[in-house]
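Entry 0007
Protein: Type III-B CRISPR module RAMP protein Cmr6
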Amino acid sequence: MSPNASQRHGSPPNHPAGQGGGGNSSPGPEYPLPKETVAVFKNTRVSNPGLIFERYIPCMTEDKENRRRQALNAVKTAPDSSALHAVYTRWQALAEACKAKTLTLKTDWRFIPGLGRKTALEIGFGFHRYGFPYLPASSVKGIARTWALFELASLLETGEGKLYDLDRTIEKEEGEFQKAFEAYKPSDEAREQAKSFRLVFGTLEQAGGAVFFDAIPTSAFPLDIDIMNPHYAPYYQGKEPPGDWHNPTPITFLAVPANKEFAFAVAWRRGAPHANLLEQACAWLKNGLRDLGAGAKTSAGYGYFGETSVEKSGKETGQDRPVPPAPPVPPVAPRPSTRHTATGTVRYENKKPYVRTPDEKKYRLDWKALGMQSLPAKTPVEFQFEEYEDGTYKVVRVTKK
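Output (structure tokens):
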């Protein structure tokens, strides 16, 4: 089944074709195509948003930002649910055959895969060939590996400035690795962690045992159109010094909405030793998705995932989950009104941690609820907190600067 096979007759929704090849203008986007090609397109409905995004972007010679928004409005519609269902069914069957551990996670907020891809719109997006957003297996593995590297660096008390050196050391061939790793004066726990790391992710001489799957959505949904608003474009372009007289330059882009479920899976390579480390690989992946995030703009709160269900393995993967009985209705909690990002330093008062901002405001921290190890006093951090309607707040994420 080719990506453009899913087409229906009729007019393109929100995507009217303009005239091509010098014909009279008509409302809607214009395409640099011969009249005959435009006529075919006008009578064909393309139901693959990824195909529209990559092949049917209109001309943008004038009013570029408005044209960009027109194009994104045509792309943000939900993909063909039957195509996604077929891919997801095949994905589940493969996970079952490989006896993979699977988990379903939902987006905490918006998620932007593939923003750096080169496209006619100058902003990219990670579309699967069948038109839905996805996270490639290589990216999924990278998130798990990065989290595992941070854990190992913490055990070795290695500063962030030396992470690159540790990364180069951990992937060396066995003989070189043993000699180089001892320079870190590792504890027994750190040695075990390094051994697990090399078995899971591999080295320069041997493939790792863990096999990571593409992460795909469990159901079809429309995308959001978001905006970034750089205020100092001439300064970033090296033309002028920064100043408040510059005009903002709005740039629209696509994003996966909040609370959308994605399926992740990790299997163990057939014949590879230490299959018991599959659980460890899944734990690293979950922690990385929760605390490091995926995709673009993670420093601004995008791309973080929260768990919605327990992992499943083997034959359970391809089966429908039974619907549990409805739980008692809990009291209505105040909904977060806004999410804020701020900076400050970690402080302790009677052994209770908090962040103090430059304007002397204090925000209490709960390391356990945040799922992270405590940070020493005076550590500079960037943090996010939810402000509730009743005036209370909750710190939901803390990262070292």
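Curator remark: The chain has four domains: 3-75, 81-139+211-316, 152-205, 336-400. The radius of gyration is 25 Å.
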